[in-house]
Design brief:
Blueprint: H1 2-27, H2 39-171, H3 178-199
Helix pairs in contact: 1-2, 2-3
């Protein structure tokens, strides 16, 4: 970089030297021509050029080069930082995709488990309803059987009372005795047993 700047400064000085010679030649009376060589002017030009180059080298080129180097280093650091951030972003994107895939899979598993639990619950509810229905039917049958037995007993009692009343009217005497009642009950039981066996 320094060599490039010095190479740019050298042609500028060399171009300015003939101009100075021309200006000096016009200023003198009876001086030389365009191609006359003035050694003193050349020496002073070289001394001034080297002095300016030294001053520039010491005070201008250093800070300029430092700024350029710092700028280049900053750009390189920014590029490295950008590459690092891009890698981190790609890694985060991949992790996000993985998490999204896991979340979808878990959601599908939860839905499947919910369906399975719903099916089990439905079967349990149906089973309990069936059991309760059967229990209700069994209780109803038992209640019907009790009511039937009670009705049959009441009917039997009524039949006995009617038979006794009819028999007493027929015999014109009252049959109240326990023995008479037992006799009629045995007769009614004998009549009802074959008929109930026939119903069964």
């Amino acid at each position: 970089m320094r060599l490039r700047l010095s190479m740019l400064a050298l042609p500028a000085v060399l171009l300015s030297t003939p101009m100075a010679l021309v200006a000096q030649g016009h200023g003198e009376e009876g001086g030389g021509g365009l191609f006359d060589i003035n050694v003193g002017l050349i020496i002073w030009t070289i001394i001034i050029f080297l002095s300016v180059l030294t001053v520039l080298w010491r005070f201008a080129f250093g800070p300029i080069l430092a700024a350029v180097n710092a700028r280049e280093e900053g750009i390189n650091n920014a590029l490295e930082d950008a590459k690092t951030r891009q890698a981190e972003a790609e890694k985060l994107l991949e992790e996000h995709k993985q998490q999204l895939t896991d979340a979808r899979r878990q959601a599908q598993e939860i839905v499947a488990e919910g369906r399975e639990a719903g099916g089990r619950l439905q079967k349990e509810i149906e089973g309990k309803a069936r059991e309760e229905g059967e229990a209700i039917l069994a209780r109803a049958r038992a209640e019907i059987a009790r009511e039937k037995d009670a009705a049959v007993d009441a009917l039997r009692q009524e039949a006995v009372d009617l038979a006794l009343a009819a028999a007493s009217k027929l015999l014109h005497e009252k049959l109240d005795g326990e023995q008479d009642r037992k006799l009629v009950m045995d007769y009614v039981d004998g009549v009802s047993t074959p008929s109930s066996g026939a119903e069964a």
